[in-house]
What we know:
It comes from Haloechinothrix alba. The structure is a single chain. By secondary structure, the chain is an alpha/beta fold. It has a domain at 4-114 and 192-272: Rossmann fold (3-Layer(aba) Sandwich), CATH 3.40.50. It is built from 10 helices and 10 strands.
Amino acid sequence: MITRSYRHPLNSSRLEPGEPLLEVSDIRLRFGGITALDEVSLSVRQGTVHAVIGPNGAGKSSLLNCISGLYRPQDGTIVVHTPAGAHDLTRRKPHRIAQLGVARSFQNIELFRHLTVLENLMLGRHIHMRNRLTRSLVWFGPARRQELAHRELVEEVIDLLQIQSVRHKPVGALAYGFQKRVELGRALCMQPALLLLDEPMAGMNAEEKEDMARFVLDAHELAGVTVVLIEHDMNVVMDISDRVSVLDFGRLIADGAPEQVSTDPDVAKAYLGEEVQA
Length: 278
């Protein structure tokens, strides 16, 4: 069971539910003559699961790349709020953004395939490790105590994701569904206040999707993690999301509660390519 100590250090005094945690304002991202994001604005509230949906090529992954620092938008601002204040992410490097409590998974699995599940998860703790290299080379005293403390949190994540049986296996030898769990686990091991998930259920069968949705909700509810989720399965989106933002050709065309967005004619047109008759 994830404990209260799991929560990100900068989020230990936590924002109140409903307060803005992430604010994206008028983001514009261009690659040469192609505009990937065109004045996109949205607000993610503390304690919510916020889905970002849209057809292929709508700009969803580009948005997450801007938030996590992999891309730098030409215009606009991205601000994350912590109890210590507001932090502009727009020009920060990815590791600095991670230190503010922002973690992400990728659409394509990005794990170290030759390392074990446990070793991959321990890599998620690197931003919280404080010992100097000289101390870490000698595994006793502070270095030993630090690793044991980090290992304890990793064990919580292993239990949460029900991957105890594969903890010592190389990731490359695991089935696809388990690899997706490990990637989610590595992000969770960073103790994020904000978790960005890029199609965590892509390529899964119905049973695997159901399991992954439950794991995401468990992390959200038990650890107080706010989630931004890209997902194509509309049943999953409607079941677990508190709010949905819809992108189409890089523009935000709808933003609201799942039931509101699901009946929006602009959303139906984006997906179906035609007007929906009343």
